[in-house]
TrEMBL record:
Localization (cell): Cytoplasm
Keywords, alphabetical: Aminoacyl-tRNA synthetase, ATP-binding, Ligase, Nucleotide-binding, Protein biosynthesis
Listed GO biological process terms: methionyl-tRNA aminoacylation
The Methionyl/Leucyl tRNA synthetase domain, residue ranges: 54-451
The family this protein is said to belong to: Belongs to the class-I aminoacyl-tRNA synthetase family.
This enzyme's EC code(s): 6.1.1.10
Presence of keyword Metal-binding: no
GO cellular component: mitochondrion
Reactions catalysed: tRNA(Met) + L-methionine + ATP = L-methionyl-tRNA(Met) + AMP + diphosphate
Domain of life of the native organism: Eukaryota
Residues of the Methionyl-tRNA synthetase anticodon-binding domain: 480-578
Stated name of the protein: Probable methionine--tRNA ligase, mitochondrial
Segments passing through the bilayer: none
Amino acid sequence: MSLASVHHRVRRLPSLRFSYRPCTSTKLTKWSLLPTPTSTIRRWSSTSDPSKPYYITTPIFYPNAKPHIGHLYTLVLGDVLARYRRLVEPQREVKFLVGTDEHGLKIQQAAAKSGKTREDGAVDVQGFCDELSEVFKNLSKSANISYTTFARTTQDRHLVAVEHVWRTLNEKGFIYKGEYEGWYSVTDECFYTTPQVTETTDGTHISKETGSTVEWSKEYNYMFRLSAFRDALVHHYSSNKDVTTVFPSQYNSVVLGMLSPASTDEPGLVDISISRPRSRLTWGITVPEDPEHTVYVWFDALLIYLSGVGYPWSGAGAQAGWPADMQIIGKDILRFHAIYLPAILLALSGPKYSELVATPPSKVLEAASIGLPKRLLTHAHWTVSQAKMSKSVGNVVDPIHSMETYGVDIVRYYLARVGGRFRDDVDWSFEQLENHSKQLQSLLGNYLLRVASARITASAAVGRDQLQDGGEAFLHSLNEELFQAATKLPGKVQSSMEALEVADALVEVLDVLKLANKAVTDIAPWSKACDPRVVYETRQTALLTLRVAGVCLKPFVPETSERLLEALGLSEAEKTWESVLALDGSERKKEREVKAVRLF
Ligand code: MSP
């Protein structure tokens, strides 16, 4: 399907398909205050300090071009985890940082290319950043991203933090001046060593890791003693923990590989250049006390995670939310987050360089007063027809247009459902999006319309009256099965989410909805032959299932969930995680005024 044809598509509502199979197999079992399946109920128990805000970050985006679907994906993952955390730990503050990475050669060049100038005729880089940063902010707002901070590297408070870190590292002996020779990629804003580069058939040199063009550069730069932290970082990523710091664990192995020497005579980790001569790069933060140098953009950008929560702190970092509990990144920026940032943090708050050599790796980690981020959720990329998205190929998927065409929640759902496994690249396809969308509309939207229909409501009322004289039996085994599955669902979803298996959490919900739809189709409560008492218990079990599904889906499709929970006539207290974790049989007896509304 071409992108053009998709652009002209409008959202269609699914048609209702009722099945009129009569209600059979009425079987009497106990419809009672069934025991709650406690084995699956895991109340939230956090070993971490609940008074420390839970802090989530996404990468800050380069505002050099309009956002694409990969950016929205990262935002949605962050938002799903932020909303989930608020749901399961409502007493705890959740901080969620997103933003834009506005310095560096890439932005400087893009601004010059845009032709945006100030009144004096100079390139208006700040104006260029302001406009594009706003586009990213609007994308976040349109997609219902519940960020608490939209941080920009051109903000004054960030400048203060970068200067503070630079000065501290310099005083502690971690910065020195040296002649730097190597390859530089403007696209990646990254230096590469010769073994990291390869020559293509046309003589161009490219990075082996990203495929971006690199050029040779020889500069007098400030260097950071990254190599001094090799052993401490190896210790950090290989020490025995229940869960790997970098998730999925395959990327933890990638990091350990980056820290290991490629051959016995290689160091494994070399010092990095953290400045560029002003003659080459003007758009950035000036190196403190040296106006001839500009701070390297990654050194600058990584510190946003600190400055975004108020670093330098006057009190304890924990009050501000540090360390980050969850950082979401793409696989292409693993090195910066898993190696550069932790090394900067260790340098900033651990022993000074002269003492570091004599300090054992585990002690280096223990001595650092600014903790390292707890988890790095690393994801693979979205491709289009198995190819990388690129402006020149013209296959870039526009997130705004996708949401306008299909609806915000449908796009969020698709990104989390298909992109929620992280391990391998996944292919974006509008056809696939439509299939997932139809499935959700049918399993959830049509299901609500079916069970809340006037006919079933009327028949259920008759059944309820008949059951009033002590009718405590489960009349249909499918309802019993569904009840069991629905009450166990929150526990299962929680297990998957705590394990960061985001797609699995959605599959758990879908499986219960499939069972629910099967039950209602098989029982056919709309049929005249169906005993009104069965109609009643079918409807009540369905409403309970919808309530549980609605709460479980809150992090993923927040607007749709809210519409559903409203339609079910639930109070705020009945929409909480706590309330669905421990549902029992009494819940099925509650009378509610339900509205048959369209969810999509
Ligand atoms: N500015 C840096 C990050 C600095 S964080 C201190 C940067 N920006 S970016 O705009 O190029 O990329 C931001 C994020 O989008 C990265 O995590 C990257 O992996 C992700 N994606 C870029 N293309 C993507 C896909 N095609 N698919 C999924 N995510 C993608 O890097």
